[in-house]
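TL;DR need structure tokens for one chain.
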Amino acid sequence: MRPRDTVGMARLRDYTPARVDLGRSGASLPTRALLEFQLAHAKARDAVRLPLAVTSLAIELKQKNISSITLASSAGDRDEYLKRPDLGRCLSDKSREQLASKRGDYDIAFVIADGLSALAVHRHAVPLLGLLLRDMDWSCAPVAIVEQGRVAIGDEIGQILGSRMTVVLIGERPGLSSPDSLGAYLTWQPSPGRTDAERNCVSNIRAEGLSYAIAAHKLLFLMNESRRLKLSGVQLKEGAPLIGDSIVNAKFVGHR
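>> reply
TL;DR here they are.
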């Protein structure tokens, strides 16, 4: 049997939050490693169940002079939302009527939806949106805050508002080391029936992943290119120049 490379494993742990070289106690894990795993699993479950504080988000946006509107999907509660993904992709009848009064001629509509981690939205959505709006000169619809929403709900919202583009900021599926990862999904000419292949995504936006500055940089590049080429999705390639020493790829993700 080859000896364990303890030095190499220690170095690897400096570069990744992955659970590597946890050791063992008899036929099982050491107590500390087991408890840390159970804690991470509990945090991921809590992130999925955490309700979206729509009033708090609306207040945060108002403090930044950003107008918003609060909406809900067709999912009646969290259990139905998790069991029926299709209901999270369309607005409730009441929200549809409410949104119709905001229709206009907009370049872009931003949507903030809880997705599978309201924790990610509470931590990252408003700071990221503030950076984006600071560097934009586009006509923007009121930000739609959607409870029990999935990515595709942005298609209906964009169509009702009369927006040429939507960007959905949404909590991503929690991992055992990332319960608060935010994703941003861009769609050109949104309308119900758009597929995931017609979107672009910048993911893993959080303190331990993609910083707000780099995420905003990538998103603005994609948004400008999408408007110039009048398309989004697999045909739109991310080629934003690097900033600082970071090399980060915006990517297409098709799991929602």
